[in-house]
Amino acid sequence: MRERLKRPVSVYWSFAPRDDAKHRVKTWDELVKLLKELSGPAADAGASAGASAGAGAAAPAGKNKDKGAAAAPGGPAAPDGGAPLPALSLAGGTVDHVIDLCGAELTSLKKPLHVTVRRLMLRNGKLRLLEGCRLVLEAPGMRLLEVAVSGVGCPGVPRKIERGIVEVLGAGNTAYFDRCTFVGPLGEQPGLGPQAKKQHAGADQQARGLAGAGAGAGQAGAQEGEVTAAGAAYACLAVGAGAHAHLANCRLTGAGRDGLLSWGALTRVVAELCEARGCGASGFASVKGSRMGQLTRCVAYGNGTYGFCSEDPGSFMEVGAGCRSERNNIGYGVTHNGAMMVADGSIARRNRESGFSAAKVAPFTSTPPSSMTVGRRCVAELNATGFMVLDGCSLVVGEGSVARGSTSGAGFLSSGPRSVLTVGANCRAEGCAGAGFACEAGGKLTAGDACVALGNTGYGFCSDGDSRAGGGRCFVSTVVVGARCRAERNGEGGFAATHGGSLTGGEECLAKANSDVGYISAGAGSFLEVGPRSSAQGQTAGRAGDGNGFAVMDGGALVARPGCSARRNALYGFLSQHRGSTLRAEEGCISEANDDAGYLSIEGGRLDAGPGCQAVRGKAEGFCSTGGHMTLGAGCRAAENAGDGVLVCRRGIDLGGGRSGLGPECGTMDASVGSCVAERNGGAGFCVEDDGCELTVGAGSAARANKGGAGYLAKAGGMMAVAEGSVAERNAGWGLLVTGAGARMRLAAGCREAAAQGGNALGAVSCAAGAGLMEV
Hints:
It is built from 6 helices and 75 strands. It is mainly beta. It is rod-shaped. InterPro entries: Pectin_lyas_fold. This is Right handed beta helix domain-containing protein.
């Protein structure tokens, strides 16, 4: 149900009409005749003597006007860094003439009506403008109070011409509207019969085509020489050519084009408690260098393109407090180098394409691209995409803003070369059909501290691809994530860099209970940097059946900074898979209580575990190279794992027909830096098996209290080298064991003696037939 607009609490008008200036009319002919009389030379002379202070914002052009604008207080800074915009007042001044329509409906002739009477008030009635008629206000200090205007416009208007059913035109001219309604051909006009409705049935589609390039169909989207059917290119109210307009408690519906339109340099429009509904293009539109705003507690509902739009170089819109945009194509949008500021707490709901959007750069211009600044705690709910920037434009979103329930896209999206989306701290993306925070095709997205991606169908934070598909210079998609950001219960994973994208995470980020993976870099050229002390907890086996904490695949690269942890994940803690993939876990990273191996390199992937990394209490091996390549830094530790502490082998494969075999890649592991420890594991402490696989154990390493066949085990063709100072203590099997054809072990001096004193259950050293033991 449409939210009813509340009456303002302040007084907007302060009229002081002269009793002898009050006139009453009940027909169109009477109105036209009276306006001619009031606009005569005598009336103009009297009017010029009583110039109103309330018309100061609309003073004639020239030095006085410039001086007044420069001294005006309080407005927002212009986007080009110039003087602040004047803070226009809704208070009126004196009124010389009052025309009361006596509640009647006046039906026009089929030609425009130009009103040039200064300080004229028109009130209390209805104006029905037939095809060919529009109401043009061209004087300072004009006021419409409780007037309803309906019309259909004129046929044959070139699309690049700005037109309205009601127009305010000319530098120095001002109009004030209070409790007025404006109804265009797409609205429900009183007395509009079936034939008339059929006549204008195509206006909506024409207006959408007209405004497809943006806004309210300004010059960027128009084709010179094109003409329109009656009403298709008409706004309800158009303000232009340097005029100023003030609206309060007004309703604009059913325009073929925009509800409220401002156009041209020096044009200013402010509005409060106004609603634009069911218009063919935009609800509120600023084009061709005009300024609109503040718009306070205004609503745009069910319009064909935008709810609020700023289009063209130099155009600027300030959307103030309490505004809402619902069921349009785009809620709040800038296009073709327009600019917009949106106040704290603004809402965009159920828009078909996006809630907040910055897109399209005007050709052949050096002005800055389209830009939008969105305030704090703004909400984009149930739009196709929440916050979106395209085509090299920029969008800044204030802290605490929320994108919730995007129906087909991301919560926050930056797409295209040079597109920049900056998201403030504590923003959230919840329940979106795509990713929570996403960047693609060469865009850039920066998310502030403590942002949250919760329950989205795609990844929580994702950088995907680059701009090579579009030709020209290549721009890498880049996501930068602040400290303490969280990705939780997302459908594809937590943090991702894919297809050549780049993602850099801040410290202490958390990926929790996501499907398949916490952090992933997948695809050649992809790079993911995980910030210090970040963690991956409880990832589940989702659609891919994985559940990894940190993973790199298909030639990607991932760096986990010091102190990162992977705990209670459904598969591996740290995984590097496929040739060309590299994962570096820096000092002090830990894998704990994962359902498979703690650290795994497989199918040619490379994994480097830094000093002091740990793999503890996993349900398989601690450190495992299965047809991959792994290095262990000084002091790495594998403890209380269900399988071997450290394992190097070839990958098992299914040969079909119930047969199994080994993959072609040979596993290697270099722990030569030394001081590594394998203790209390369910299998061997250090183990290598299969032809071509090699394990180097550095000086000062230790295998203690392991439950498998030996502290150090080489079997089935594997090769192990054990450096000096390594010990084997209290293992359930042998201290050192070499078994199986082709297996080899090279022991440094003193290793046998140390094993003999280690209290291993089966003895110090054993070399079975067909194996080789070399002591140096």
